[in-house]
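quick one before i forget lol
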Amino acid sequence: MVRRYLVSGRVQGVGYRRFVHREATRLDLKGRVRNLEDGRVEVYVEGNESVLRELESLLAEGPSFSQVSNVDVQTLNESAFDARVFEVVADGEAPWDL
């Protein structure tokens, strides 16, 4: 299963991407995370339903200096996604279009 998360709040400049990378790697998930120009963080991730629910809970909590106000969730077509590891990628202007 592939999910896309758009996380809003105080999630840039507080170690949020490192936090997501650490937790996703610990959960053995594949995907990527990046900052968006509008202040949100975008996460694409692939895994089984129960592990994705655990990650979603962690995304809503965030690291200690963050303040998450919202996590938008979208389930995607798996064929549109091809990740072998979980990585932090360069900041982007607009959300990825898969």
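fyi The first strand starts at residue 2 and ends at 10.
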